[in-house]
Design brief:
alpha/beta; 6-stranded parallel beta sheet; 34% helix; binds nicotinamide-adenine-dinucleotide
Length: 407
């Protein structure tokens, strides 16, 4: 079998761990051909450090690959997915699939940081129903392009592939459990990306940037239950949500420990989702967490209960009397100090699901199968989140989730 040739779009945080995980994929011959990104300097440095070739455009990269791994900011995902599909190339897309990034106007200057006032448009003040309508149009365009090109989409929702969530999938399938309620969270102190915090680049705040993770896992588990018990997925039908901007409250007392430079996004959100069988899921997500990333999923079923810990996950704790001691030791994502006790993630790529995610995508592309985390999951997740923004605008009023694909 000829190796699958893969090219990356992006040379940032996600590109770094995608290369590491792709290099650990087994059983599927592959070649990481190279990458492109916005700035020549950073793509050449990234490529040189990893022995890859730097390309100066997505078009040029597409000529040399079978799979495009899209690791750019959310605002350009749609355009790059359409490019991949038009070229008949399979693709892997980082979360979120896409979103709403404001009315068309000249793009912001490259490298504009969080807090940039370059665009007068503000996502927090913009009406949310037109956003939902525009997002549904985008999702329809993506879905049509992927299906007419006949390419495989790997939706990089790592929560789906976390070992604990996959163990829960096995339990649901083997015990034919009915899930009655679920609970999930992803929260941590901001993002590594300089454009996180600006709606024009990110498509929103905590709900889309972080909430998509637990939401994706909860929608996935309910889908597994439906396929096992009923032979069809159980999908979300409505959502009630609240969003808040806690670090921008006039009385917020900034002691310097939490990131606060969010331009026009929420830094706290919650979503209450109702499924078509009347069961429920609740998601909490925010930027207001010290002590490292906080990611988990809980399932309350009719025959068992499960707590799936992604991070921290209790594999290892260290006590370090002096921060300097661990200066060149990575412990866990977004921990602000390594002094005292730390919840260490000895192999974060494995426990967070990144490794299994890329393994599944490559196997599925080679075998022309749909991955566990696929376009259908990405479509439902995105529609739910923008319906949640409409609900939040109306103080939490229940909002129907538009449905793109029928079962
Ligand atoms: N699954 C996860 O846990 C996780 C974690 C981090 C990021 N992400 C996702 O990965 C994606 C990238 O995030 P990041 O933190 O790596 O961002 P980043 O800002 O660190 O890197 C983004 C890269 O994309 C490049 N880029 C921007 N616009 C481009 C364009 N038009 N064409 C080509 N390249 C372009 C930039 O030059 C940069 O190299 C986002 O969708 C983010 O949500 C997922």
């Amino acid at each position: 079998m000829k190796p699958l040739r893969i090219g990356l779009v992006g040379a940032g945080f996600a590109a770094d761990y995608h290369v590491e995980c792709l290099r650990r994929v087994y059983g599927v011959p592959l070649e990481i051909v190279g990458l492109t990104s916005l700035r020549a300097e950073s793509r050449e440095a990234f490529a040189a450090a990893r022995g890859l070739r730097a390309y100066d455009s997505v078009e040029a990269l597409l000529q040399d690959v079978d799979v495009l791994d899209i690791l750019s900011p959310p605002s350009v995902h749609q355009e790059q997915i359409l490019q991949a599909a038009a070229a008949g190339k399979h693709f892997i897309i980082e979360k979120p699939l896409t979103g709403y990034f404001g009315p068309s106007e000249p793009p912001l200057p490259a490298g504009a940081g969080a807090g940039s006032q370059a665009s007068p448009w503000r996502g927090d003040l913009a009406p949310k129903s037109p956003m939902l309508a525009a997002v549904m149009d985008s999702l329809a365009a993506l879905s049509a392009a992927v299906s007419s090109a006949g390419v495989i989409c790997g939706y990089a929702e790592n929560f789906v592939y976390a070992p604990a969530v996959q163990k829960e999938r096995e339990i649901l399938e083997k015990t034919r459990a009915q899930v009655l309620r679920m609970y999930g969270e992803e929260s941590h102190n901001g993002s590594a990306s300089p454009v996180y915090g600006i709606w024009r680049f990110a498509g929103g705040g905590s709900l889309i940037g972080k909430g998509c993770h637990p939401l994706g896992a909860l929608l996935y588990l309910k889908r597994v239950e439906g396929l096992t018990r009923l032979g069809r997925p159980l999908r979300p039908v409505s959502v009630s949500a609240r969003t808040h901007e806690i670090t921008r409250l006039p009385d917020y007392d900034d002691q310097g420990f939490l990131r606060t430079d969010y331009h026009d996004i929420e830094d706290y959100g919650q979503m209450h989702v109702v499924f078509e069988d009347g069961t429920v899921a609740d998601v909490i997500t925010c930027e207001l967490v010290l002590g490292g990333i906080y990611d988990y999923v809980e399932v309350f079923a009719n025959n068992h209960r499960a707590r799936c810990r992604l991070n921290p996950n209790d594999l290892m704790d260290t006590f370090n009397p002096c921060g300097e001691n661990f200066a060149d030791i990575y412990t866990v994502e977004k921990i602000s100090t390594k002094e005292g006790w730390s919840p260490v993630a000895p192999d974060e790529h494995f426990t967070m699901g990144y490794q299994a995610e890329l393994q599944d995508f490559l196997e599925c592309i080679a075998g022309r199968r749909q991955p566990q985390s696929d376009l259908a999951l990405a479509l439902d997740t995105t529609a739910t989140i923008y319906a949640a923004y409409v609900s939040a605008e109306e103080g939490g009023k229940e909002q129907e989730i538009p449905r793109l694909l029928e079962d």
